[in-house]
Amino acid sequence: MKLKTFQRQDLARAALKDGLILGWDTGLGKTWAMFVWPLLKVGFDRPPQPSTLNPQPSARLRPRLPVLIVAPGDLHQQIREEAFTHFGVVVQPLDSQQTFEQLTRLPGSRLTHTDETGRPIVPPGFYITSYTQLTTNGVAPVPDPEDWEPCALLDWLAMPIGVHRAPVEPSGTPMPPCADVCTFFAWRAVRWADEFDALHASPRTTIQELDATLQQRLDSLRHWDEKAAAAQRKRLLAAHAVLVNLCGRTPDTRFADLSRRQQDWIVRAFCADKILEYSAGMGELKAYPIGEPPPGYDPAKPETDTRPKRYVKCLYSPSLADLCWSAFDCVVVDEGVKMKGETTIVGRGVRSLNPRFRLVLTATPVKNRLPDAFRLAWWAVGGKAEATPIFPYRDESSERERFASTFMVTERNLSKEEQAKADGKKATGSRFRKYTAEVCNVHRLWKLFGPIILRRRKQDAGEDIVPKVRKVIRCQMGTLQKKVYQYHLDAEYRDVNGKLAVGAQLQALRIAAADPSSDHLKPQPGEPEETCPCRSLNSQPSTLNPSPCPVCRGRGSVPLPPRSTNPYVPKAATVLTLIAEILERREQAVVFSAFNDPLDNFSHWLSEADVRHVLLDGRVSQKSRGDQAAIFKQGRRNDASIPVMLAGVECMAEGHSFHLANNVILMAYSWAYDKFKQALDRVHRMNSVKPVNVYVVVCPGTIDLRLESLVQEKADASELVLDGRLIGERTEEVNLAELLHVARREFNAREATIDEDALRSQWPALRQRLHHAWRQWIDLPAAVARPVRLAPEFITIRPPAMLPSNLRGSALPSAIGYRRSAISSAPDRHDPLAAFTVEALQTPAPPPDPPDPAPPLWKLRARARFATVTNSDVWSSL
Description:
Strand content: 5-15%
């Protein structure tokens, strides 16, 4: 292998540090850094030279210390293949606690091989695990008292019932740890002091007195303010629900005098308190020095204790991270943004690893907001409990809040704050304050991140990278699709509390723009309607018109459908046409979608056309995704190659490298900009062989246009923090209500549409074209990479149903011609004001293919799963 100039420079700088965040842009070779940096830090043994006794030695580099790689599971195969291909390194999987115990077990014994400090000894080498395997697999949760039978739970804790004790009156003394149930019952007035105070009760209060007191307190609320009375009523009923289990029928009630239901309730509460007490220190680490104190040791100064220490961690059921937290000298975290969560299991588990050398690999250190980089930076520089000069923040959640308040612009609602003060309410805290996406104190932030984050963008790599050509293709909506979209635009979305659910409505609009037949589109209250075409005529019964309009029955409006029965919309036909054109060029295509339903539809249509493809989304396991992605990555290599990949944005936007594919089709935008950008960068790599075409298929009048315009705005915010750009510009936060208002404003109910039935009649010709293009793709040799002339940024394509009526039903157009109304004087420059139109050129249908003498097995399986539909009447019945 041979490193690029920028790679040698950056890795040389990174090798001077024991921990950092390597923020290389996607496609610059983070997988190579995953092995080069650890080998520079821990050292390596060179492969032996050929000799007479060993003429063909194994060309393998071996690190001198154990190195752990944490990466998503679907990237493991790709990482292991590149490690062996470029470095001759064999990466061993570390998939469970049992595997780790076998690595560290003494030969012929069940004991763990440890050093003098109790640290497990792992053989030198590269090991790889996933976030799930490291933090959650094989971990038994702490028992939930509500899921256990009370007596069994008491036996499991080995706790007795005890003997009767006199009740303890509340006197300000805190409740001590109780060793039996009766002692716990005696301290009930202290344990539930708030509930007893709410109803002015005591341990000697009977159930009859408790019920009478509750009724009196409820009756006294009649003269209260309605809102305050509702809150007080809720408090009283909750207190009564607790105390009814603690009071008996006599003042001197003992635990044995209670009913079985009351006893079970008290035992569960006692066991819950004991489990909470036992698990309070779970996950905490305590050091125990070995040997006598050194000379000059001062107990008030822990740093003067230089003795080796043994560490004991409080656990109930250990995860793999708990077992190997100190076993590896170097840890590399790929897609490190996954560890940003403050209280998540994955974030806390990965951050519990305590190696000497730490490397975080991510192209997006700032994922959505600036505080996302807080935990990445804290762990990369050592993960210390106290503040250090390089990262002056402690290991506390409040420090993250202080970091955000220092470097993010805060907005305060002064009007509501003054109103709260006038009403006598508390007007401090975060109730009237929120953080925006805008960053402040930028120079101070750069000084903080400068020694921690090593950033490199593709434009600054100094290497010739193929261009990324973005082509926005606008196609009209289907007739029925437009009605579905208008239904969800006019519907009244409410949540369980009766409040407006703007987020759910925007999600429904995104789905309707991509696939109006999705099962996720549900009927909503409000019954939206549209004007009937007969409204301009006389629809009232008369002598000449004895019956009203049969469609609206004289009402003048008809209800809109919440869901369509036809998934074959103009956007789908446009994508299939693009796939056919790409296959005819003998190239690969990746179709990204934020939803599963459009991918299922494309898989069905491609199977009908006998086009080999893979469907990789969140419903496919990580291992299977990695195996199938590895086949697609090979390009046009053999008969088993795959030309089309249908991918989910959420699961295929990280880590993968498809440098031989040069076409990306976007069906629906993702809310997160980083997912959108990373999905495109799966194809736009440093070693890409052809210019990358990015086809963005949008429908005018839908929410797609607004989401498409937000892409560059979100890019500006991330570049400000990491690259120092756009200092003078202000990035406004996207408001969901404003986004919905824009969607309603841009929707035009009178805009022309395409009839789905007419469009569906073109499917047999398109299916034949797809099959013919697929046969060309697998039969002809791979095309030589040649420079492609850049197309205009915005073009308009007319699907077959938009052709004149005399051309409908004929073969689908196979060529698109560009007509330019204005041409710049310089031949090598493009006039941005030039207008482009697209004309469909009629070409004869391709000849039918000869029958296959022996279809491959994969075709037989595809035909068994999907029946080929050729009759338009059958389509109409679906």
